[in-house]
Amino acid sequence: MAQALAIDGRQDFITTKGRQISRLKCDDDSIAGAVSQRACVYCGARVVLNPITDAIHLVHGPIGCASYTWDIRGSLTSGADLYRNSFSTDLKERDIIFGGEKKLAAAIDELVAKYSPKLVFIYSTCIVGVIGDDLEAVAKAAANRHGIEVIPVQSSGFAGNKAAGYRAACDALFRLTAPATPAEAALAGKDRSINYLGDFNLAGEAWIIRDYLAQIGVDVNVVFTGDASYGELKKATRARLNIMQCAGSMAYLASQLEETYGIPYMRVSFLGLADTADSLRRIAAAMGGGDLSRRAEELIARETAAVQPVIDSYRAKLAGKKAAVYVGGGFKAISLIKQFRELGIEVVMVGTQTGRKDEYETIDSLVADGTVILDDANPAELEKFMAEKGADLLVGGVKERPLAYKLGRAFIDHNHDRKHPLSGFAGAVNFAAEVYSTLCSPVWRQAKTGGDLNG
Amino acid sequence: MLDATPKEFNERTSGGMINPAKTCQPIGAMYAALGVHGCLPHSHGSQGCCSFHRMHLTRHFRDPVMASTSSFTEGASVFGGGANLKTAIKNIFQIYNPEIIAVHTTCLTETIGDDIPSIIKEADIPEGKVVFHANTPSYQGSHITGFSNMTKAMVGYFAEASAAIKKEQVNLIPGFVNPGDMREIKRIAHLMGAPFIMFPDTSGVVDTPMTGEFVMFPKGGTTLGELGDSGNSKLTVALGRFASSDAAEALAKKCKVPAVTLKTPIGIKATDALVMALRRAFVREVPWELEEERGQLVDIMTDTHFHFHGKKVAIFGDPDIVTGLAEFAVSLGMAPVHVLTGTPGGAIGSDVGSFEEDIAAIVGQAGLKANIKAGGDLFTLHQLIKNEPVDLLIGNTYGKYIARAEDVPFVRVGFPILDRSVHSYLPVVGYRGAMRLIEMIAGALLDRQDRDAADEDFELVM
User: Among A124, A408, B41, B366, which is disulfide-ready with B67 (CB 3.0 to 4.6 Å)?
Assistant: First the structure.
């Protein structure tokens, strides 16, 4: 089947470094009929907001949208765990005909009575966009009724792709973080702390970074959105600086916060030793340097000394292997290319679901000639290029895992299903260990020879 | 994690769900369509639907799940999805080249009113290729309804009474069960010497062997020829009122194939019913292999009955599975005290019986009473368990929160199971499946007893 992937219009989404001018088409809608790995607006909004631990995340729609996103993110909490429940208005046929506003209002009332939240997000789904329920009005009335914040998230599934959902989530966050009083507004940008954008605390990753920054002497005000609480988010505008890891989801919010409150932002990455060290240095410098920078250097030296020998031991075993990368956003792909290089592994195929033009340009500048770069890939393309380029390992999400295994290739989940933190120095070791354990597992020996008893 | 669940019941009237025990129609339709050989399920809606369903099925089966999407945009939702679907059909045949495309709808396309049959008629379909469809509005029923609707569509589109007299063969409609269960039902039919057509049949599709190659359309699945020939069978056995009876009734109506609806063959009684139905229709003797298996099962039940007797159990999940589990639990001497499904209770298209009545009859025959709820959610189940604690919980993965909160042994059966593997390969149906269930249930109960036992009560022989 791999030879049949010359679907009209897909050629522009694939490029090979060194052979074509890199004018990759991205951030466009998937082609109708594609076995796309992409999700929808609602999915994008939900994954960004869901880690907010003490909020009610109420999905206004038929049951499916709530069922499929129930506790799937693996975001850890240090406090409330309300966000790990699944709330839905479970719209039925009569609601579609007569409108779902009353049901939504009643559902909010019930949930507020049960859980006494300070914050309720109501997510719009496809059908709500079509029947035209006025979420703003319902939210406003409910907020007044209960004296809490009720924020509608405009995430009708069809209104764009997952990236549009990130934007809808950013809109909701921007609204949430707006200072409620003149006194609070006066504090904007005045605190000595920073906000950390684009970490969802998968497997506790944000905690690792928070700890590093504490060691340097930088306080994290709030993380967007890993392990974030309502109270923390309400003070978000006090921070002096925003650092941003996952730019795909957070760039819009960062620029809004800069524009409105004058809080500057800088991009960081805590994936791999080099990026982690570089990010810590830049944060220390941005916050005034001096002692901060000295402590940053000490931390980097200490941590590097601890983990470098371990990384080197893995590198000795892994050098020369080839990896394929297919992840959600561009930032992660860029970091992974560098991180694999630290392990002596070359990335021979790289793609994303929602990477942006500038990110693809960075990718193009990083990879070796002959590397395949592709946007919004389908399984046939992944199979073809992994085989063609001789990739030993695929990095991907849920749907790519069994595909890689079927092809007899190792796999790393760099998405919701990761089980170890992959951030920072500790994460770099976890990553190396995971790459080693999947690439060098004895099961592949069976896979290579198995399945043919008559051979 | 569920500390906030209160024990006191306050009436909930909004109709909203807290921690659902069901999901939406399209995923059931997608799973059913995977059980047709050479078929690519197609989701007519936003791309998120397709992505979520594939993700969920992939997590459950741990196998690649292929399906395409119409990739709806704002424009399509205003002007209708006809153009998207036609483009999709053209692209799918061009790039993926399946034999068949099975289109199912979503809440979005149902609401904007896309007329799928007309769109298919106008679509550019290559010679020899087939497109069929089922309407699966997400705002009605559950994933089980979607499975039922897609299975019924297979009858509507393909079944034909082409032979003058009915053939000595039986149609087996397995319902929303794992490929391991479908294999076991087929094995029983084989042993009974009953030629059969199973549809849908996802064995060999979502439980494929590792070969070092990715095959988009694996060997398994009911063929188009078999679907057509189902109209010539002399009997249809629908397993599970909720997932299978609609298709059987449609086949009876369209092709005059007599239909019998049985429970999903979980446990000894329901398996007996399947074996007897096959024996009656094919006038064969039940072979020794099955007699032996049944005898072994009875032997195991007697060997272990003291572990089960009087144990209170809560069972939740899909209605056909839950019904079978409840019956089996009763036959082991257990007391199902809470029995819940998220699917609405009236069987689709059937005017007889309902989930509540079926379960009430099962527990009633044993002189027991249970809290029975259809269309329920896991918040309700948790409250029920808080008010009347149980010794065991049986259900899908989502039960783990309640099991942890209430410190109850937990056996995973049903869909989805996202945190354990191998389950989709091994049956819970048939006599062998019943043995497996006993091993799982006894294991859970006895592991707990071992864990909790004081040193002086810790026993080697149990």
Answer: B41
Nearest to residue B382, comparing CAs of B442, B316, B321?
Answer: B316
- The DSSP code sequence of A382-400 is HHHHHHHHT-SEEEE-TTH
pLDDT at B433 over 80: yes
What the block records as the tokens of A142 is 């409910």
What residue spans define the domains of chain B? 25-158, 167-288, 307-457
State the pLDDT confidence band at B326, using cuts at 50, 70 and 90. Answer: very high
β-pair partners for A122: A58, A152
What's the mean pLDDT in A245-261?
93
Decide if B367 contacts B386 (C-beta within 8 A): no
**Buried b / exposed e along A58-72 (16+ C-beta atoms within 10 A):** bbbbbbbbbbbbbbb
In this structure, what token pair is assigned to residue B371? 């809290």
Instruction: Measure CA A30 to chain center.
Output: 20
From B47, B107, B139, residue closest to A38, measured CB to CB? B47
DSSP of A141-156:
HHHHHHTSEEEEE---
Contact B244, B238 (CB under 8 A): yes
User: What is the rounded distance in angstroms from the CA atom of residue A365 to the CA atom of residue A121?
Assistant: 40
Confidence of residue A395 (pLDDT cuts 50, 70, 90): very high
Domain B307-457: CATH superfamily is Nitrogenase molybdenum iron protein domain (3.40.50.1980)
Per-residue pLDDT tens over the stretch B42-72: 999 998 999 999 999 999 999 999 999 998 8
Same domain, A144 and A229: no
Place of tokens 């190792």: A410
With a threshold of 0.85, tell me whether the complex ipTM lies above it. yes
Q: Strands A220-225, A194-199: parallel, antiparallel or unpaired by DSSP?
A: parallel
Chain A positions in Cβ-Cβ contact with residue B216 (cut-off 8 Å): 1, 379-380
> Which residues on A lie below 8 Å from B401 (Cβ)?
84
Residue A394, sorted as left (phi over 0), alpha (psi -120 to 50) or beta, turns out to be beta
Task: Output the domain CATH number for residue A266.
Answer: 3.40.50.1980
The boundaries of the domain holding residue A47 are: 41-176
Name the B residues in 328-367 with CB < 8 Å from any A CB: 342
Q: What is the rounded CA–CA span in Å between residue B150 and residue A65?
A: 20
